[in-house]
Design brief:
This protein is of the alpha+beta class. The chain folds into two domains: 87 residues, Phosphorylase Kinase, domain 1; 201 residues, Alpha-Beta Complex (Aminoglycoside 3'-phosphotransferase, Chain: A, domain 2), CATH 3.90.1200.10. Helix content is 47%, strand content 14%. The strands form three sheets. It has a five-stranded antiparallel sheet. Strands 6-9 form a two-stranded antiparallel sheet. The chain has a two-stranded antiparallel ribbon with strand order 7-8. Strand 1 and strand 2 form a beta hairpin. Helix 5 packs parallel to helix 9 and helix 7 crosses helix 9. It starts with a helix and ends with a helix.
Length: 301
Amino acid sequence: MATTIEEVVTRIPDWQTRSVTIVPLIGGLTNLNYRVEVDGTPYVVRVPGEKTDLLSINREHEYHNTLAAARAGVGATVVHHIPDLSVMVLEFINGPTMNGEQLRRPEMAPRIASSLRQLHTGPAFVNEFNMFRTMEFYLEIVRKHGMTVPSGYTEYIPVAGRIERALAARPLPLVPCNNDLMAENFIDDGTMLRLVDYEYSGNNDPCFELAHICNEADFGPELLEALCLAYFGRLDSAMVARTWLYYCMANLGWTLWGAIQHAVSEIAFDYWDWTMIKWRRLQDKVESHEFERWLKEVQRG
């Protein structure tokens, strides 16, 4: 049976004699999120969605990595943790939640890069995240349960191997990454962009992090290059190519994520439309004349 927010509230002794107000937060694609005010002090409570084990989410890893991100000064502080419910009560970060349009402003690239570097140079996470292995996990789930994927998807599966081999020629050191920085996971506290939601976190190639942001916030080539410049301190064609290849790989993997969510999630969201957006972005880049150049560029370094 799914955990309710009321059950969570009863599990926190400090809240039992206080005034508690609960307001649902919109925008979560995997979980149910709430703003809970306790005697006027706001917190964020994240209640896991149904069947998230099918999405390769490890809640113990998420908890430890959330603590590490907070120590790095970029994540939210964990106020309470209820392990058997996989529930965290988090600091409420005051400030606007970002959207794609806001992140696409030219002046935002240095701010995004600054927050990423703070996370990436912070305490190491307890696990690794590898989209190639995650995609294989998702593919097995889809096949096992007979879930629908976009027509023609299986023809693109070998693309993952080509990308992985090219990237492996000159690997980068792994750093602690969020790996799921959609625009809504950035919160502007007035001083810096804070980064939240560590469900898919793990030590990873930093270019995957850059690629995921560019994908989710719909960055074009100029903005992708601006983010690479701000992050690395120089415009390196190999790092730009590496980011574009991870952009392709992110869409290849998240297309399967969307197909699984379309089949199992009870959250009121059009997962199939989301899946098709990822699928079309993958096709657009893989079929472009630049794809082969990116494969060669990352191997030359």
